[in-house]
Automatic annotation (TrEMBL):
Source species of the chain: Raoultibacter massiliensis
Region (Disordered): 352-372
Reaction(s) this enzyme catalyzes, per UniProt: ATP + protein L-histidine = ADP + protein N-phospho-L-histidine
Pfam families reported in the protein's UniProt record: HATPase_c (PF02518), HisKA_3 (PF07730)
Basic and acidic residues composition bias: residue spans: 352-367
Taxonomic classification: Bacteria, Bacillati, Actinomycetota, Coriobacteriia, Eggerthellales
Residue ranges annotated for the Histidine kinase/HSP90-like ATPase domain, each copy included: 316-401
Keywords: ATP-binding, Coiled coil, Kinase, Membrane, Nucleotide-binding, Phosphoprotein, Transferase, Transmembrane, Transmembrane helix, Two-component regulatory system
CDD domains linked to this entry: HATPase_UhpB-NarQ-NarX-like
Enzyme category, top tier: transferase
Record protein name field: histidine kinase
Span of domain Signal transduction histidine kinase subgroup 3 dimerisation and phosphoacceptor: 202-267
GO molecular function: kinase activity
Coiled-coil ranges per UniProt: 182-209
């Protein structure tokens, strides 16, 4: 019974304020209508008014109380549509019988029926409309004219039916809009799920390709390494050629894997798809810095590229490129010093600028964290910090490993 008498949906403060405004507006309209009806403005012929049984006098307090009983309960119309509708209907019918000569507006019952048609289901709206129509058809009206009484009954019934149809139409429209929005959201979700599924399929495909590339490349590297191991004492030249083949094969494999991993990386605005290059392209970094207006002091005279494995060479170039980007964007420097060398059993990179120094959060993309990851994977060390005097310094040292030492 609770669901029939009370709506269970939660009402916000704005809903209560709106319904209070509706109730007060209906009360004000009823008072204005009563004043106009009882005055000589609407019906100036005194004899005609007496024949109809309508007095020409100011309404008494009871009339305003009756209007309040038929309108002010509307403040709870959406919380309890049926209770409010029944109350205002009984108040309207009862006061019409008691207050002889006063014609009250049927606005309260109209709004109550509209609310039922809007808030409750169709069956309840039909039942409420039938009850209202039957009640209004047999109500005694404060007039001596049967014709006028019939006209007022027809008018009130018409208003009630229109209110029921209006409430039902608004409910249907709102349900249609809500369903349309629901379908649009569902369609968007379906498109997103389909796109995610296709992305996942593409990533699986790329992962398989990476597996194939890795397996093929490592097989070739393993064969060449075994050949180099056998020939290093007997035929150093052939062993050197085998090591060169290992370097080229591993570098090609790294380039292909790097480009595919760029596609797999999620959360980046643009995936890296260009092939990875090594320190042989350091001239591009120098040109980039010079184009940005910096004086560049570049020295790689102590760097023996033949001793440096491809994966280390690629890592050094990537770190140099990241550092150069950060210098241009954040350092406000005028000069940069870049040193690339092979010192003992390690490859070393030093990049120093004379700018204002930086904080870690100022670096773009993966920043210092990305450099640390590159170096740690290769068992190297990195130092990235503000210089004691002015500027910022990045220094990297990566051990060459077995291949670099044998080549030396």
């Amino acid at each position: 019974m609770e669901n029939f008498l009370f709506n269970t949906k939660k009402m916000e403060a704005a809903d209560w304020l709106f319904d209070a405004a509706v109730a007060i507006g209906a009360f004000a309209f009823g008072c204005a209508q009563l004043l106009l009806t009882m005055s000589s403005v609407v019906m100036p012929d005194e004899l005609f008014r007496q024949l109809l049984g309508i007095p020409n006098a100011m309404p008494q307090t009871g009339a305003y109380v009756a209007i309040g009983l038929t309108t002010l309960p509307l403040v709870a119309r959406r919380k309890s549509p049926w209770l409010v509708f029944i109350f205002v209907m009984i108040a309207f019918l009862g006061t019409q019988e008691i207050l002889v000569g006063y014609t009250l507006a049927v606005l309260g019952p109209i709004i109550g029926l509209f609310t039922i048609a809007h808030e409750r289901d169709r069956t309840e709206a039909v039942v409420a409309t039938v009850l209202a129509v039957i009640s209004l058809l047999f109500i005694a009206l404060p007039t001596n004219s049967e014709s006028l009484s019939d006209l007022m009954r027809l008018q009130n019934v018409t208003y009630m039916v229109a209110a029921a149809l209006g409430g039902f139409a608004l409910r249907t429209h709102q349900e249609y809009v809500a369903e349309t929005e629901r379908r649009a959201i569902a369609a968007e979700k379906s498109r997103e799920e389909e796109a995610a599924r296709r992305v996942e399929e593409e990533r699986v495909r790329i992962a398989r390709e990476i597996h194939d590339i890795t397996a093929h490349s490592l097989s070739a590297v393993s064969i060449q390494a075994a050949a180099a191991d056998r020939l290093i004492d007997k035929d150093p030249i052939a062993a050197k050629e085998a090591i060169g083949t290992i370097r080229a094969t591993s570098k090609d494999a790294l380039e292909e894997i790097r480009s595919m991993i760029g596609v797999l990386r999620s959360g980046d605005a643009q995936a890296e798809t260009a092939p990875t290059v090594g320190t042989e392209r350091m001239g591009d970094i120098v040109s980039y810095l010079e184009d940005a207006g910096l004086n560049v002091d570049y020295d790689d005279s102590g760097f023996d590229r033949e001793r440096v494995p491809a994966y280390i060479d690629v890592a050094l170039f990537g770190i140099a490129r990241e550092a150069a980007t950060n210098i241009v964007k954040h350092a406000h420097a005028s000069g940069v010093s870049i040193r690339l060398a092979v010192d003992g059993e390690a490859a070393r990179l030093s990049i120093e600028d004379d700018g204002r120094g930086r904080n870690d959060e100022e670096t773009d993309g993966h920043g210092i964290e990305g450099m640390n990851e590159r170096v740690s994977l290769l068992d190297g060390t990195i130092s990235a910090h503000n210089r004691a005097g002015k500027g910022f310094a990045v220094r990297v040292s990566i051990p060459l490993g077995e291949a670099g030492r044998n080549h030396g």
